[in-house]
């Protein structure tokens, strides 16, 4: 796809990482003209200045309502914008809402040309959520390890155990009570706080 | 058997009847298992209602009408069988604009005609001195805030499309935007006016009840097709929100209501600010000046919950006046039919007390509203963007 035929895409997203992931994906797919707005002040003025064919915005962004103003006949608007999501493509709408992304198309660009852009945004948004989940899980695993280390320390001190023995005790208790080691460790910390 | 429902809302005080209905157990008592989903934009609420992710929603009354008419977006017929609030908005201006208006005012500062004429003189002086036009924030193109601001300023001779700028801003951004000088004033619902006053960056110039005695604000919106298929569920939901509205209007329940609404997953601001709104006792100036009005926000009082098709007609007339749509008798009929007093009456088995405004609107300017003759009514207003 040549630069001339590549539609101008603007990504409105306050998350710089997600926007970067999206931008990279779009460029890889041959969309050479991609810009990113992360600052929501004077959003409309920025969009008018960039003059995009397609606007992509995350659904958690309150500034989505600002974009709706562009549908209104106003002397500030050079050309009207129509929203892509009409109900002819329910599956696509559902997928984009689930992924948390919405796209607007400026009048003049053929609707078919938006489909690959939207599909790509959906898959990148989903990939980002997955990354976020993994990051959250890694963070909570790290938290667990800190809690377990502290619980081990308490057991070692109170019961005169070695580190390995303390860990075995935690693990066997967790198995017996059908709980996670982290939860058992947390209850030891709570109990020791109470008994201080 | 309990029926699961997903209902979207925007964190504003006029979602009170819905939030209290769920959190006080009125919906559960009707056999409904309601999950309230807090949203960040009216576009999201509208779209999620349209595609069926929400069974019902707290929605701007004009959005329900625009959606039913297919103006500005896809056409999805909406039924509004319960009115979640009357009035509740205010116009707040920056300290600088407040001073400028007060310097020009000839008459009572609570008289919207006096302030609108003063605004018009401020606008003229700015134009003469080559200053940038004033900018006002409102929440959505199809919002009561947009129409109320326009109605007020146009009555004083200010053309809202020519003489100043009106911009859409999400309510949580209003206060920062007026503080940073991006906007000179705004019209928004509670709690944002009070928060601007508390931060010393805004002066409340008018309660919307100064401009219109009765103004339908948010409705309980349901897809018409879904409402037709689930009449018992809709009736149960109306009964639960009606009970909640009655609960909220008892002065001895206000503190509890404010506490429920203040929860982080509901509105998430200080209970004190919310209670001021419910009591109609607002701090209007940063120096602590209080203004009381029993018309600030009506949740259930004076039959506020009963949808009034005259209100729908007035909102449709504003869409016509400002060029959002052209006039047609069929569209007027459709707009009126969005406000389903019939469903409300059937669910509750009674009708509301009559309104105290002679024409059910009570606007401060122009002739009495005639819901059957929009063209004749609008002819009395000079400023507008009517499509030919």
The largest sheet of chain A is: 5 strands, mixed
Biggest sheet: strand arrangement of chain A: 2-1-3-5-4
Structural class of chain B: alpha/beta
Q: What helical percentage do the residues of chain A reach?
A: 55-70%
The main sheet of chain B comes to: 6 strands, mixed
Any idea what the shape of chain B is?
globular
Main sheet: strand order of chain B: 2-1-3-10-4-13
Query: Count of DSSP helices of chain B?
Result: 18
Roughly what is the average pLDDT of chain B, rounded to an integer? 95
Interface with most residues: A-B, 29 and 29 residues
Percent range of helical residues of chain B: 40-55%
Give the class-level CATH name of the largest domain in chain A. Alpha Beta
Shape of chain A: elongated
The CATH superfamily title of the largest domain in chain B: Periplasmic binding protein-like II
Q: What is the CATH class name of the largest domain in chain B?
A: Alpha Beta
> What is CATH's topology name of the largest domain in chain B?
D-Maltodextrin-Binding Protein, domain 2
Describe the structure.
Chain A has 196 residues and is an alpha/beta fold. Chain A has helices spanning 16-28, 43-50, 64-68, 90-99, 114-159, 163-177, 181-194; strands spanning 9-12, 34-37, 54-58, 81-83, 101-106. Chain A has two domains: 9-133, Rossmann fold; 138-194, Arc Repressor Mutant, subunit A (Orthogonal Bundle). In chain A, 57% of the residues lie in helices and 11% in strands. Chain A has a five-stranded mixed beta sheet with strand order 2-1-3-5-4, with helices on both faces. In chain A, helix 4 (90-99) packs parallel to helix 5. Mean pLDDT of chain A is 83; it is low at 74-78. With 388 residues, chain B is α/β, with parallel strands linked by helices. Chain B has two domains: 3-86 and 216-269 and 301-357 and 372-378, D-Maltodextrin-Binding Protein, domain 2 (3-Layer(aba) Sandwich), CATH 3.40.190; 89-211, Periplasmic binding protein-like II (D-Maltodextrin-Binding Protein, domain 2, 3-Layer(aba) Sandwich). Chain B has a six-stranded mixed beta sheet with strand order 2-1-3-10-4-13, sandwiched between helices. In chain B, strands 7-6-8-5-9 form a five-stranded mixed beta sheet, with helices on both faces. Classes of the chains: A alpha/beta (196), B alpha/beta (388). Chains A and B meet through helix 3 and helix 4 of A and helix 3 and helix 8 of B.
């Amino acid at each position: 796809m040549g630069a001339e035929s590549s539609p101008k895409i603007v990504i409105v997203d306050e998350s710089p990482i997600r926007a970067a992931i999206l931008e990279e994906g779009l460029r890889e797919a041959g969309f050479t003209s991609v810009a990113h707005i992360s600052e929501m002040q004077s959003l409309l003025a920025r969009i008018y200045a960039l003059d995009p064919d397609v606007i992509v915005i995350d659904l958690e962004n309150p500034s989505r309502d600002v974009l709706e103003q562009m549908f209104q006949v106003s002397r500030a608007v050079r050309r009207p914008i129509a929203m892509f999501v009409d109900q002819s493509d329910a599956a696509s709408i559902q997928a984009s809402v689930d992924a948390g992304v919405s796209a607007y198309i400026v009048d003049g660009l053929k609707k078919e040309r938006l489909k690959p852009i939207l599909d790509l945004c959906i898959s990148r948004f989903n990939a980002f959520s997955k990354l976020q989940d993994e990051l959250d899980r890694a963070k909570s695993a790290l938290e667990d390890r800190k809690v377990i280390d502290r619980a081990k320390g308490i057991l070692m001190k109170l019961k005169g155990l070695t580190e390995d023995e303390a860990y075995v005790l935690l693990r066997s208790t967790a198995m017996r009570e059908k709980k996670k080691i982290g939860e058992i460790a947390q209850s030891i910390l709570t109990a020791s706080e109470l008994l201080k | 058997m309990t029926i699961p429902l997903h209902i979207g809302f925007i964190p504003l005080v006029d979602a009170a009847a819905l939030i209290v209905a769920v959190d006080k157990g009125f919906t559960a008592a009707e056999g409904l298992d309601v999950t309230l989903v807090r949203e960040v934009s009216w576009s999201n609420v509208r779209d999620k209602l349209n595609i069926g992710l929400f069974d019902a929603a707290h929605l701007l009354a004009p959005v329900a009408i625009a959606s039913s008419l297919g103006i500005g977006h896809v056409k999805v017929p909406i039924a509004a069988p319960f009115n979640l609030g009357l009035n509740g908005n205010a116009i707040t201006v920056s300290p600088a604009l407040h001073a400028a208006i007060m310097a020009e005012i000839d008459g009572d500062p609570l008289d919207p005609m006096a302030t609108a004429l003063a605004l018009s003189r401020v606008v003229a002086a700015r134009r003469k001195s080559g200053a940038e036009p004033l900018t006002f924030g409102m929440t959505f193109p199809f919002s009561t805030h947009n129409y109320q601001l326009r109605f007020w300023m146009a009555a004083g001779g200010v053309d809202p499309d020519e003489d100043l700028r009106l911009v859409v801003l999400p309510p949580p951004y209003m206060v920062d935007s007026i503080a940073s000088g991006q906007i000179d004033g705004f019209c928004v619902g509670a709690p944002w006016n009070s928060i601007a006053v508390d931060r010393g960056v805004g002066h409340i110039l008018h309660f919307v009840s100064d401009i219109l005695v009765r103004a339908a604000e948010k409705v309980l919106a349901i897809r018409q097709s879904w409402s037709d298929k689930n009449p018992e569920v809709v009736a149960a939901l109306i009964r639960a929100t009606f009970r909640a509205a009655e609960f909220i209007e008892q002065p001895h329940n206000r503190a509890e209501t404010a506490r429920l609404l203040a929860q982080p997953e509901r509105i998430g601001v200080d209970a004190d600010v919310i209670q001021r709104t419910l009591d109609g006792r607002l701090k209007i100036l940063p120096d602590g000046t209080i203004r009381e009005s029993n018309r600030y926000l009506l949740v259930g009082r004076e039959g506020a919950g009963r949808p009034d098709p005259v209100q729908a007609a007035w909102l449709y007339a504003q869409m016509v006046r400002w060029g959002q749509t052209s006039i047609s008798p069929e569209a007027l009929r459709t707009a009126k039919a969005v406000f389903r007093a019939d469903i409300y009456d059937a669910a509750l088995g009674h009708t509301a007390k009559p309104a105290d405004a002679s024409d059910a609107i009570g606007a401060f300017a122009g002739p009495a509203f005639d819901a059957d003759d929009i063209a004749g009514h609008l002819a009395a207003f000079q400023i507008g963007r009517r499509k030919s």
